[in-house]
């Protein structure tokens, strides 16, 4: 099945199984991630250092996997690659039931890490293909919300299981995780395998991707954004409890606040931001991150315990606001900046930035935190400033970042005789190619979705004296 960007796609209700697969996958991940170290310490005779070394080695060896499968996604579509990742993770978690040596943990953990890297690389390709232009931020926002809720539900199930503390309880966690990936595999069978049109140009391959100087700032921006996201798991809890000496429940309150805000508000906030320029929204997201970091630093100067807790929670709200505002827009810009025929490779490169951040962040943030409060939070403010500068840069050179949220970009394809620019407009829940007479070829025109026709989306109607559907 081949669906280019300008063909009619089903409305969102048609993809409930894909959404369900994402939720189930997230629940499985949320079940195991909080207890990964505890599981191996409870079920094997290995030491903490041995387990940590095995998991770290597996994570590093899995880094090249995402880019390697980018070409497979471009050739065969994202669906079979996603399903292969589901099976690899199911096999990896099943292997956890019988591991007993360091190398065995490393092999099974590599299957899981590689599967996660492949899933992350294919995820954006699938969402971009299923979602109509102008609705992709809403899709990424909705799926970000449901994934967060899935992580929370998985964490809750883990808390119940760990409360028993038995070998059987830990084994049940692994079994549930393996079954979740098998269930996601089955649900993904109903998702259409959407690939680029056969005639589209894939010449150049990875060389063409790496020579695309307009996309490299997008990848650098993704790296900055990902480093900020990892601060939640690595730096904030340790800082609140060990450095500030706040009650242990403060770390749990920060996680809960983050989960509730992202899970309940991300889709709504994206709707509120409709019509705003994407690059400017990304700058605002980094500003929220920076404000949160400064509040965390200020908490170190507060003597009263209750007031310090309040400042930390306020910082968590500002930090989470940056995640809510920037997450869907970052994903949409990265996906739409890539040509259809090479989107798998482009997004694999973008996901590599996330993987690198995940590999570097634990050591870097821990080292900064051991140096002092000012070192880590001012360094992260610097990361946010760099991210905002990169967002401004891509707003000048990347058309996808110049367009408004909820807007639809014109393409420069020839639509039909007498038409010089064929655009995609969302009409009645589907993409309909619309020919705009008077548009200039080769210059993208932003066409926001409006309820009342096309003319309101064009400056005073000057660029369009009428419209008709292209043949």
From TrEMBL:
GO terms under cellular component: plasma membrane
Transmembrane regions listed in the UniProt entry: 18-42, 48-73, 85-107, 113-132, 139-162, 168-188, 218-240, 252-274, 281-299, 305-325, 346-368, 374-394
Keyword presence, Disulfide bond: no
Domain Major facilitator superfamily (MFS) profile stretches: 14-399
Record bears the keyword ATP-binding: no
Topological type in the membrane: Multi-pass membrane protein
InterPro entries found in the cross-reference section: MFS, MFS_dom, MFS_trans_sf, MFS_Transporters, Tet-R_TetA/multi-R_MdtG-like
Keyword line: Cell membrane, Membrane, Transmembrane, Transmembrane helix, Transport
Superkingdom in the source lineage: Bacteria
Pfam family, one: MFS_1
GO molecular function, one term: transmembrane transporter activity
Subcellular location: Cell membrane
Name the record gives this protein: MFS family permease
């Amino acid at each position: 099945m081949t669906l280019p960007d300008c063909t009619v796609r089903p409305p969102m209700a048609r993809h409930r199984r894909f959404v369900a697969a994402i939720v189930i996958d997230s629940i499985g991940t949320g079940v195991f991630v909080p207890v990964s170290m505890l599981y191996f310490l409870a079920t094997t005779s290995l030491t903490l250092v041995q387990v940590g070394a095995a998991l770290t080695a597996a994570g590093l060896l899995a880094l090249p996997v995402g880019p390697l499968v980018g070409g497979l996604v471009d050739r065969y579509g994202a669906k079979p690659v996603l399903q292969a990742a589901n099976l690899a993770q199911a096999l990896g978690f099943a292997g956890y039931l019988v591991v007993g040596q360091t190398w065995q943990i490393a092999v099974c953990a590599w299957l899981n890490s590689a599967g996660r890297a492949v899933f992350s690389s294919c995820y954006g390709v699938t969402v971009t293909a299923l979602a109509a232009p102008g609705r992709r931020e809403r899709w990424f926002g909705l799926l970000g919300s449901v994934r967060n809720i899935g992580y929370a539900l998985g964490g809750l199930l883990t808390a119940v299981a760990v409360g028993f503390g038995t070998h059987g309880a830990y084994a049940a966690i692994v079994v549930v995780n393996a079954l979740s990936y098998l269930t996601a595999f089955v649900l993904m069978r109903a998702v259409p395998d959407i690939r680029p049109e056969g005639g589209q140009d894939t010449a150049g391959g990875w060389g063409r991707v790496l020579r695309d100087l307009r996309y490299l700032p997008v990848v650098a921006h993704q790296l900055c954004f990902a480093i900020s996201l990892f601060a939640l798991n690595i730096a904030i809890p340790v800082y609140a409890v060990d450095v500030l000496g706040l009650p242990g429940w403060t770390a749990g309150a920060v996680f809960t606040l983050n989960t509730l805000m992202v899970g309940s508000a991300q889709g709504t906030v994206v709707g509120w931001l409709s019509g705003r320029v994407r690059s400017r929204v990304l700058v605002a997201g980094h500003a929220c991150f920076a404000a949160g970091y400064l509040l965390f630093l200020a908490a170190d100067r507060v003597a009263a315990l209750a007031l310090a807790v309040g400042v930390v929670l306020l910082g968590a709200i500002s930090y989470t606001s940056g995640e809510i505002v920037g997450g869907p827009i970052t994903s949409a810009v990265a996906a739409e900046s890539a040509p259809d025929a090479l989107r798998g490779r482009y997004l694999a490169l973008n996901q590599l930035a996330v993987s690198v951040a995940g590999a570097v962040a634990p050591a870097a943030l821990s080292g900064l935190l051991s140096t002092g409060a000012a070192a880590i939070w001012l360094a992260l403010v610097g990361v946010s400033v760099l991210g905002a500068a990169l967002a401004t840069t891509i707003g000048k050179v990347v058309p996808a970042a110049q367009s408004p949220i909820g807007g639809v970009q014109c393409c420069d394809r020839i639509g039909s005789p007498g038409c010089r620019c064929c655009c995609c407009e969302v009409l009645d829940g589907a993409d309909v190619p619309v020919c705009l007479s008077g548009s200039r070829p080769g210059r993208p025109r932003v066409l926001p979705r409006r309820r009342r026709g096309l003319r309101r989306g064009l400056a005073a109607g000057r660029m369009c004296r009428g419209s008709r559907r292209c043949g």
